[in-house]
Amino acid sequence: MNTKKQKSTASLEKVIGISIFSALAFVVAFVCNIIPPISGFLSLDVKDAVIAIAAFIYGPVSGLIIAFIAAFIEFLTFSTTAWYGLIMNFASSAVFTLTASLIYKKIRTINGAIIAFTAAVIATTGVMLLLNSFVTPVYLTSPLVGMPKEAASSMVLDLLPRVLLPFNFAKSMLNASVAIMLYKPVLAALSKAKIIQTKSASLSFNKNTRLVLIIGSTALAVSVVIFLILA
Q1: Are the beta carbons of 175 and 96 closer than 8 angstroms?
Q2: Distance between CA atoms of 13 and 80, rounded to whole angstroms?
Q3: For residues 5-33, average pLDDT
Q4: Does the domain made of 2-230 have the CATH classification 1.10.1760.20?
Q5: pTM of the shown model
């Protein structure tokens, strides 16, 4: 009976956690929506950091669920890019979250987190470039934009190395830096609020903390510089 009760409690905690992080990811995306898009359609936000933190806590599958919920609610509310934006938003969050959480699930150390987010940045940048090559021309020629097919293809080919590559890299690195710096504080806050139960939620300033802050701050600074150049 106790085992069943514990499982039921754990399941309820996960549902609550997924709901909280889904809402938080949407709010972050909504707030970031006030930032003018780069090149007219590239939106900057840090919701992938929120989703990745959730995936580190609740697992990769939960991360994917949150990624879809956040992208779908955005699609239904303030998105102006229709299903094209839904595909790109979900793909970005899903690749970033799945890559990072699967690696961290196997290597639950500070080195594992660094490797996880490094791999997530590389994987997300590559996948999004591939999707930009195919989805963006379709979006530009759709009734939403109405650009001629040849002009759209030429524009995307021009943007790929000059804008899309640095943008996707910088956006992924920004999300990685935010996630790696906020993971422990968020874990501790949720544990204190009795939303999760974990033995590794205490906050302490040590060598690992300094390493995380240095790496996170450096990645954050580099990503901001890239965005400033693109803007």
Answers
A1: yes
A2: 34
A3: 85
A4: yes
A5: 0.91
Query: Rounded to whole angstroms, how far apart are CA atoms 68 and 87?
Result: 10
Residue 86 has pLDDT above 90, yes or no: yes
The alpha helices in the chain, defined as continuous H runs, are 2-32, 47-58, 60-76, 82-106, 110-141, 149-159, 165-192, 207-230
What tokens appear for 214 in the block?
């240095």
Where exactly are the structural domains of the chain? 2-230
- For the segment 194-225, what is each residue's pLDDT rounded down to a tens digit? 777 765 555 555 777 788 888 899 999 999 99
Cβ atoms of residues 196 and 18 within 8 Å: no
If you count them, how many residues does the chain have? 231
Q: Is a pLDDT exceeding 90 seen at residue 4?
A: no
What is the C-alpha separation between 150 and 29, in angstroms, rounded? 32
> Token pair of 191, please?
């544990």
Taking the CA atoms of 9, 199, 211 and 101 in sequence, report the sign of the dihedral they define: negative
